[in-house]
Design a protein that fits this description.
The chain is built from eight helices and five strands; from the N terminus they run ααβαααβααβαββ. By secondary structure, it is α+β, with helices and mostly antiparallel strands. It has a domain at about 1-45 and about 115-195: NADH Oxidase (3-Layer(aba) Sandwich). InterPro entries: Nitroreductase (IPR029479), Nitroreductase-like (IPR000415).
């Protein structure tokens, strides 16, 4: 097994893994706990540490949550892409076709993924100001990304999805989450990967990204 050897390699090869999740190999609880330990070293607004990670491994519970996620994927949601979004999405021929194929594969096999990780944060941002949103999301998203990096370093694959948003209340009810107080931030399938030879993704040119001094 070839795992990332440097921080740059870890950061540039932590991919969204869908088709290459090993659906037949359980993930040891010890590895998940190690990833959570590293995740909680991430920055947190005002040191409030409002983060939580729900880990679902029981087959029956995964089946129920998986059915909800399938329903959410069918309904879509969110604003559609802008013209500039579309240009970037299709800048490299074949990229979006691979993404779509991976989404279909995950849709068909979601119930077989050995572990679901659902990061959550205390406090809701419904109708909140940009300030309140940034403080809340800024206290969970860095932790989730740290979790995903830690998983990659251990031969585990993840993919950040937001499908839970469309069925958040139902998922919260199934998992006993107090919906009025706690927000489900993402839905992260977790499994060992089939192979570890992940490469950097093709992105838009760097010249399109930084803005020096002003927009």
């Amino acid at each position: 097994m070839t795992l990332p050897r440097t921080p740059d390699e870890l950061l540039s090869t932590t991919r969204a893994v869908r088709r290459r999740l090993d659906l037949d190999r359980p993930v040891p609880r010890r590895l998940i706990e190690e990833c959570v330990d590293l995740a909680t070293q991430a920055p947190t607004g005002r040191n409030r540490q409002r983060w939580h990670f729900l880990v679902v491994t029981e087959a029956a519970r995964r089946r129920v949550v998986g059915d909800l996620l399938r329903r959410a994927l069918l309904t879509g949601g969110g604003r559609g892409p802008t013209e500039r979004d579309l240009r970037r999405m299709y800048a490299h021929p074949g990229s979006m076709e691979k993404v779509s194929d991976g989404v279909r594969h995950l849709y068909d096999n979601i119930h077989r993924v050995p572990a679901f990780v659902i990061p959550a944060v205390e406090g809701r941002t419904d109708r909140a100001s940009v300030l309140e949103q940034s403080m809340t999301w800024g206290s969970i998203l860095p932790a989730v990304w740290s979790f995903m990096l830690a998983a990659r370093a251990r031969g585990l694959g993840t993919v950040w999805t937001t499908a839970q948003g469309a069925v958040e209340r139902e998922v919260a009810e199934v998992l006993g989450v107090p919906h009025r107080e706690v927000m489900l931030a993402a839905f992260v399938p977790l499994a060992f990967t089939l192979g570890t030879d992940f490469r950097p993704a093709r992105r838009v040119p760097r010249d399109e990204v930084p803005h020096w001094e002003r927009w």
